[in-house]
Amino acid sequence: MDLSALERRVSALETSLDSLESWITISTFLVVIGLIVEYWHPLCDLIEAIRKRPPFPWKKLLEITGGILVTIGVAGELWFQSRASDKQVLIRSATHEIEGLLNKEAGDARKEAGKANERAANAEERAATLLAEIQPRSLSLSQQRDIANAMRAFSGWKVMVSSNRGDLEGYQLGKQILASLQSAHLDVDNNLNNAGGGGMYAGVLISHSRSNREAANALKKALGSILGNVLTFESHGTGGGNAAYGPVKGSYDPLEVPRFDVSVASKPLPMLK
After folding, report:
1. Which of 64, 103, 152, 209 is the most buried (most CB within 10 A)?
2. Does 154 score more than 60 pLDDT?
3. CB environment 179-191: b (16+ within 10 A), e (fewer)
4. What Cα–Cα distance (Å) separates residue 140 from each residue in 90, 130, 211, 223, 268?
5. Taking a C-beta distance cutoff of 8 angstroms, is the pair 137, 267 a contact?
6. What's 153's DSSP letter?
């Protein structure tokens, strides 16, 4: 039973109790009236007998004394019962006021607890955001296996993994990407900690030609679901050579470069959108 149901039940019981007390008061009052009526004539006879003494009417005096005491006792019970009922009403009213104050304090405490929980949640969110900003990018073993499984269909394809010189965080992430691709049996060229870092981008850039677009997109999807900042760039050469791969002897189609590149740049910083 919930609190509101209990409060309604208590209110109904109090109303019923008030009704019973009223009937008890009426009943006691009727008893007092009945005793007065019953002993009124014997009392008048006793007074008349005392006037006509001697002899003194001791027997009648004792008889009427008992009735008078009973009447006084019942009348006193009626009076004290009415006083007690009034006090009970006051006590009940004060109790309701106390309950109201306690409920208000409990409500205020719940509000403060809610605000404290909200502040704690906000602090945890800010801490998590800060941790994400300062935490180096990393791939768990499970994520590396997922990448390897996604790229296994491209076994034997050529790929070069690069990172900027002096970028330790990018170097570590590049090693994990390289290991994932090697596990998928791609032909991986290690160019980590050797790139000049001249590109104006952050995150991971996958450069590819038309012929290996499918492999590049598969890697972008696998890495992007984990890192988020993964870009692809399809190069379009002008024939005879390519800045990324050097000169090609003989017949050369700039749209069919036999290898795609994975360049790990610095970690992206949060920006307003």
Report:
1. 209
2. yes
3. bbbebbebebeeb
4. 71, 20, 30, 12, 19
5. yes
6. G
- Both tokens of residue 234? 């399809």
pLDDT in tens, 114-137: 999 999 999 998 888 787 778 888
**Please, how many CA atoms are within 13 Å of residue 218, restricted to the half-sphere of its CB?**
18
The set of residues, in sequence order, having a beta carbon less than 8 Å from that of 2 and lying 6+ positions away, is none
Q: For residue 27, give Cα distances in angstroms to 30, 40, 91, 179.
A: 5, 20, 24, 98
Q: How many angstroms separate the CA atoms of 214 and 160, rounded?
A: 16
Average pLDDT rounded to a whole number, residues 47-63: 77
- Asked if 236 contacts 208 with a C-beta cutoff of 8 angstroms, the reply is no
Within 8 A by CB and 6+ apart from 120, the residues are none
Q: Is the pLDDT of residue 145 over 60?
A: yes
- Looking at the chain, the number of H-run helices and the number of E-run strands are 5, 7
Residues with Cβ within 8 Å of 203's Cβ and at least 6 positions away in sequence, in order, are 227, 228, 229, 230, 231, 265, 267, 268
Higher pLDDT, 56 or 155: 155
CA distance 241 to 258: 12
Q: Sorting pLDDT into bands at 50, 70 and 90, what band is 220?
A: very high
Rounded Cα gap, residues 243 and 202, in angstroms:
21
In whole angstroms, how far apart are CA 134 and each of 115, 163, 213, 225? 28, 19, 33, 20
Rounded alpha-carbon distances, angstroms, from residue 19 to 14, 15, 102, 263 = 9, 6, 28, 88
- 189 in Cβ contact with 177 (< 8 Å): no
Residue boundaries of the structural domains of the chain: 3-133, 141-244+252-264
Residues 171-193: what's their mean pLDDT? 95
